Amino acid sequence: MLPLILWASLVGCQVTAKADSCFAQNYNPYVLFSTYTPYEFVHENTDDPVHIPQCRPVQFWILSRHGTRYTDAAGINNMWSLISLRDHIITNSKNGRGTLCAQDVDNLKKWTPQAVLTLSMNLAPQGYKDSYNVARRFKSRFPALLNQSYSPEKFEIRYTNSQRTTLTALAFVDGIFGSTVDVVLPKPIPGDPLLRTT
């Protein structure tokens, strides 16, 4: 998501930036970038236990997609192409063209893409964090079911055979149980009838 924000900021810098404002001082930036928006920015902001009169929770199921992942190789290459745009903006600023504040220019000088081709399609750190926090919120909302020690008789975790889904499962387990050490994760089932295999 950061490269997209940077791209939007760079384009915005060329078109709309004013000398009396700094993107660096914007503490409420626009962050709704479709599927690239971290879940932490848009989830329902409550940890309150779910209470329905005359009912009690007896089972918890979740079928979830993996957490936020890095883009494919073409997308990563596109991120790295932003370096030339960044350098062009910095050069223009040095030559008195443009209206970026000094802080924004300094931040641009420090910026480089964080994704490399070997990370293509893998779970991003934000994806792990989001999945962990989703689990923490579910634990708070359904304490009778989820605020207990792990046992394989009570909990089943399934996932497909990819780095992003495996780490998403581990992040969720970590959020529920506070660790993954004693949790038995089964190997992915080839041709799992419930989950996709990719």
Automatic annotation (TrEMBL):
Catalysed reaction, written as an equation: (2R)-2,3-bisphosphoglycerate + H2O = (2R)-2-phosphoglycerate + phosphate; 1D-myo-inositol hexakisphosphate + H2O = 1D-myo-inositol 1,2,4,5,6-pentakisphosphate + phosphate; 1D-myo-inositol 1,2,5,6-tetrakisphosphate + H2O = 1D-myo-inositol 1,2,6-trisphosphate + phosphate; 1D-myo-inositol 1,2,4,5,6-pentakisphosphate + H2O = 1D-myo-inositol 1,2,5,6-tetrakisphosphate + phosphate
Cellular location(s): Membrane
EC number: 3.1.3.62, 3.1.3.80
Broad class of enzyme this protein falls into: hydrolase
One GO CC term, this protein: membrane
Keywords: Hydrolase, Membrane, Signal
Span of the signal peptide: 1-19
Main location: membrane
One MF annotation (Gene Ontology) recorded for this entry: bisphosphoglycerate 3-phosphatase activity
UniProt-listed SUPFAM superfamilies: Phosphoglycerate mutase-like
Similarity comment: Belongs to the histidine acid phosphatase family. MINPP1 subfamily.
Protein name, UniProt field: Multiple inositol polyphosphate phosphatase 1
Originating species: Zootermopsis nevadensis
